[in-house]
């Protein structure tokens, strides 16, 4: 309407005189009665009005960040395509590598009032020997027990006075120390992290007291059956290799670890090239880099990488099982796993989609027949489990892909059949609708996972240690969207079809089928 109004104004501003109009009419009649010829030129327009009209239309078009799709559908003469990658893009992740090989990565969110600062180290229980297994976890406990500048009490009070949180965790391949603080305390947090990693005292009395703490922790872990199942699964799947060892280590090692073991582990594995300093939230990259240069000056520059150490002692998957019968507990638990993909394997994305296709289910959460996962539907409708979940674990050179389940003893046979049927079916019959659903669920979970400065920092640190860079979400989502039904079948044939499996089971498991029964159902068996 606005366009028509402006055109009407333009016509009225240059309306011809009656005599001129009559001449034009006579000319038109003559042209119509005679042979066809070039029509007369229209009267010259008012240039200023048309310029204003063009500018008005141009400004209106510039305001349309997302044009009406009808303009594209019906062939607008100048269709405008809008990129949607900004929806997926996170703030820029900036990485600076110092002269000693130490990497500093930041992601600034200036609207945030808090920040997470941490150190991600390419070292874990996998890099221990059989005699020193448990040292990495022991070190995680001792690192907060005092330095040359701060006592344990000073550390606690300094963090408490800032209103911050200082924490750590150890896995099979990585160790992390991080602090979440207010924006004004970022430099203090970096100073504390540098101090505990370079100047810890490891007092013998503290070591003796901490042994008892870790031994009590081991007793508590024994009550967490899911964790115990996965420890047994690693032990049988990667038996006689470092990846098969537990994170806490055996009790006899915990009792024998000394100050020398801790210092040796730090000197060997806490080296600059194997560490990433990460800061996310209310931080500025240049300021963080300058602080790191000043504070982290005592790190070894040993160029040996974690991948080189893994190459010397690689993990080998062994088809095997471990079963622990315990009739004193009411529920049976078991995990069935195939060898999976490493972090950098091109098929790791497809395995993530396959994990979403198999899904998870919990009796307390309800659902079942209306869930997208056919495995969850079978389990829920037939009430053959208390809970189940698919898992996909990646390491530097291998992985584990499978299903973990908890069930009553009389349901084990039916549950095992459902798990193997739906898992093996991925090699033969896959619908595009199921793949699309799984892709959407995977993308949603990845986005929801990084809600907050600490998850963002964890994502940056893990990706820099595993991939060597932070993968943008636009790129990651494009890789996920490239997975279709044919990709799923190809990858399932590579990892699942007629492949060895590892099984770990605990509880009243007499009704769980034997290993050969599971192995026969890794390929199409017409029964």
Automatic annotation (TrEMBL):
Gene Ontology CC terms: mitochondrial matrix; mitochondrion
Protein EC: 3.4.24.64
Cofactor: Zn(2+)
Record bears the keyword Repressor: no
Keywords for this protein: Hydrolase, Metal-binding, Metalloprotease, Mitochondrion, Protease, Transit peptide, Zinc
Keyword Hydrolase found: yes
Annotated segments matching region Disordered: 10-45
An annotated Gene Ontology molecular function: metalloendopeptidase activity
Catalysed reaction, written as an equation: Release of N-terminal transit peptides from precursor proteins imported into the mitochondrion, typically with Arg in position P2
All copies of domain Peptidase M16 N-terminal, residue ranges: 103-250
Primary location class: mitochondrion
Domain Peptidase M16 C-terminal: residue ranges: 256-442
GO terms classed as biological process: proteolysis
SUPFAM superfamilies: LuxS/MPP-like metallohydrolase (SSF63411)
Principal EC category: hydrolase
Chain ranges passing through the membrane: none
Residue ranges with Low complexity bias: 22-36
Pfam hit, one: Peptidase_M16
Family: Belongs to the peptidase M16 family.
Protein name: mitochondrial processing peptidase
Lineage of the organism: Eukaryota, Viridiplantae, Streptophyta, Embryophyta, Tracheophyta
């Amino acid at each position: 309407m606005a366009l028509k109004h402006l055109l009407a104004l333009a016509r009225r501003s240059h309306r011809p005189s009656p005599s001129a109009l009559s001449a034009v009419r006579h000319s038109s009649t003559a042209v119509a009665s005679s042979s066809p010829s070039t029509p007369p030129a229209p009267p010259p327009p008012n240039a200023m009005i048309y310029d204003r009209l063009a500018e008005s239309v141009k400004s209106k078009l510039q305001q349309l960040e997302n044009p009406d799709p009808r303009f594209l559908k019906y062939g607008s003469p100048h269709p405008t395509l809008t990129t949607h990658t900004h929806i997926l893009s996170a703030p820029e992740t900036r990485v600076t590598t110092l002269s000693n090989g130490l990497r500093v990565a930041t992601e600034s969110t200036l609207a945030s009032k808090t920040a997470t600062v941490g150190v991600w180290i390419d070292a874990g229980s996998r890099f221990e020997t059989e005699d020193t297994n448990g040292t990495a976890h022991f070190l995680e406990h001792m690192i907060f027990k005092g330095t040359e500048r701060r006592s344990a009490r000073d550390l606690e009070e300094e963090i408490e006075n800032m209103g911050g949180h200082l924490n750590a965790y150890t896995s099979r391949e990585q160790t992390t120390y991080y602090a979440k603080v207010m924006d004004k305390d970022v430099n203090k947090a970096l100073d504390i992290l540098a101090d505990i990693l370079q100047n810890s005292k490891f007092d013998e009395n503290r070591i003796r007291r901490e042994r008892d703490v870790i031994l009590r922790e081991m007793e508590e872990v024994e009550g967490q059956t899911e964790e115990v199942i996965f420890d047994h699964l690693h032990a049988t799947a990667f038996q006689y290799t470092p990846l098969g060892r537990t994170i806490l280590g055996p009790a006899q090692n915990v009792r024998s670890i000394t100050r020398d073991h801790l210092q040796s582990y730090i000197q060997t594995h806490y080296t600059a090239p194997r560490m990433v300093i990460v800061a996310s939230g209310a931080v500025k990259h240049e300021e963080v880099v300058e602080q790191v240069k000043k504070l982290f000056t005592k790190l070894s520059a040993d160029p040996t990488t974690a991948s080189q150490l893994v190459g010397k002692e690689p993990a080998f998957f062994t088809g095997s099982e471990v079963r622990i019968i315990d009739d004193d507990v009411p529920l049976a638990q078991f995990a069935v796993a195939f060898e999976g993909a490493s972090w950098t394997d091109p098929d790791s994305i497809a395995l993530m989609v396959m994990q979403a296709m198999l899904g998870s289910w919990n009796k307390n959460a309800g659902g079942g027949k209306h869930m997208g996962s056919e495995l969850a539907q079978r389990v829920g409708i037939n009430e053959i489990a208390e809970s189940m979940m698919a898992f996909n674990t990646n390491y530097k050179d291998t992985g584990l892909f499978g299903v973990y389940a908890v069930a009553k003893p009389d349901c084990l046979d039916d549950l095992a059949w459902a798990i193997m049927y739906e898992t093996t079916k991925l090699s033969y019959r896959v619908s595009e609708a199921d793949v699309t659903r799984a892709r959407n669920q995977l993308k949603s979970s990845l986005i929801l996972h990084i809600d907050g400065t600490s998850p963002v920092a964890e994502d940056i640190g893990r990706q820099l240690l595993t991939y060597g860079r932070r993968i943008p979400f636009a790129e990651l989502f494009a890789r996920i969207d490239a997975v279709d039904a044919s990709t799923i079948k190809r990858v399932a044939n590579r990892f699942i079809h007629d492949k060895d499996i590892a099984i770990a089971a605990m509880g009243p498991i007499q009704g769980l089928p034997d290993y050969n029964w599971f192995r026969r159902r890794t390929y199409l068996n017409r029964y």
